[in-house]
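User: Look at the shape:
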Amino acid sequence: MKETSAPFHTRRAACLMTMLALLFSSAILASAATVLGPWVPVFKGIDHAVGTNTTTGGGFPHLQVVHFIRVDLADPDIQIYASPRVTNVTWVANVAEVAGYTTTNFLKRNALQVAVNANSFYTASGGLPSYTASEGSTFNASQLLISRGQVVSSQDSSDDPSVLMFTSNNVATFIATNWPPRSTAGIHTAFAGPYSVLVNGVNVGSNYINSALSIHGLEPRTAYGLSQNRRYLFLLTIDGRQGGYSDGALDWETAAWLLLAGAWDGANMDGGGSTCMVMQDSTGRPVPLNRESSSPAVGRERTVGPHLGVYAKPLPGFFTNIVVLADDTAATVTWSTISPSTTQLRYGLTTNMSLATPLNSAMVTNHAVLLTNLTPNTEYYYAAVSTIGANQYVSSNLFFMTTNYVISATLFDITNAWRFTTDNLDGVNWKAPAYNDLPWGDPASGMLWADYRGANIDIPMLQTEMPLSPDTGFPYVTYYFRTHFPFAGVAPGVAIQLQAYLDDGAVLYLNGVEIQRLHMAAAPAVINNATLANGYFCATGNATCPEDFAVSGPVISTNLVNGDNVLAVEVHNYNAGSPDVTFGLAANCTKPYTLNPRLGMTRSGADVTLSWDRGGFVLQEAVSPTGPWVNVAGPVFSSPFTATNSGSTRFFRIAK
């Protein structure tokens, strides 16, 4: 483990206060110079809004950046989802109830549209979880948690008494104090928070203004609320612990934001480093909405116990049925529009999408474009563009990945032998192929490691122990490695796929040229012997899990040679007092080959239907097998295509 940070969780059995609203709380809200931005539809039944405030001119005393998600519970396609019972171990009430994940990965694993942290959570022994707990760790959820009708955690004390319940058709109930516990018969989903901050439209968070407990202090906040008519569920995050950006909020400020958004009742959930809200973007990838405080503090998003998630359908729009059929160096994209319009596609390697197909001005409802000269095994972003008169319509950003017809070969495995040194090589061209590394000593088998506590049994395949610094008794900040490997063939189109067991950061060089940085300051930052890594891959900070990545393109095709090659690696520790360093690396190469497509034909009367099973091709015709070949009028990019027999002989083919 690399660092720890003060937790937000605090037991509250003896600290619940009578919920009496102070009269001045509404006056504070009325004079606050707050701004809640517009509600922006992001999915069918889900809107997003951002709030900010000033600390002068009548605003709240603390700088705050607030994110709201408003869920329309009346939308029939909305589904509320809670973290289910743990599955990797046997579920045990109050001991092993739920598996922890980052909010980002909770959304990804469950294909949700929105996710946010929920109940407080504890280790099996009742302690507070570490900020560096690994994903999949088992936790005890604090008080009531129900997922798809199954009780994950029961309400067994007066701790965390504020509860939101939902039936399977999203009929919502808010219980300010769920003790003694209400019946959960017919409840499909439920969450529990430490205490209410808004009850029947009254800001009861002001009851805690004079509390000395840390949970009532200035903290990042997660809160849930319901509108008075129970139609809308509000999910709220307030960023904190980030001076100059957002300080956090007190309980009465959290309630004031809920009121401003339209909530009538609301409860504080787990907060602090756990506060995190994530949304799926139009490409299906998770996008953080708030700026959670765990990453700036410890270098990674926090593993959190229970979560709330929401399933929703995409917003209805002008575009429908967008389909991409990708090949290795080409792709066919088709879509429909609700009205006749022009055809064009923007695309590129980033969301800037700097490339575009030629404009086809024909007014049609079924559109098709052909993309060529693409790179195999590469992700591309794209957006459909259609115009009617002066009105231009642009779809959401989407993405596809080209195929990769390759032959794989092993360059070396994780037990590969490396020469290494701990000497300070600043100013020495030790990466060059001709550099003499014989003084470094005999090659040593991977994996290589140094740890003043001895070998870590959780790290697989440890082989060669490296020296510690005699000056500090800790590992050196930097270790240098070199190995030779053969390569036969031509380099264009070749990719090198690597698997690293690494603690903590590294820079890789192929024949003297830098090809990759892992958890180091990005180029053009200069890396030297004293440079520390700025992160690590595995959640524990140890090399207990493999990190897979690939390097391709000009940096490989221009530097990989036919014959002997040298891979040089410098490994850097995360801090000078870290107890360990680990390095192991395996490498494969992939070489492209050509895969011929298949063209099929069926006959029905005078009609002939041609079909093919790969994208990126255009249909061509000729009156003779020797040509000349011309594109079928359209041109035709998408399969199938039906031609009427004209009585003359015609030949067809598909081509890139």
About this structure: Residues 407-592 form a domain with the Jelly Rolls fold (CATH 2.60.120.260). The chain has four domains: 27-311, 319-404, 407-592, 599-655. The first strand starts at residue 34 and ends at 36. Residues 251-261 form the longest helix (11 residues).
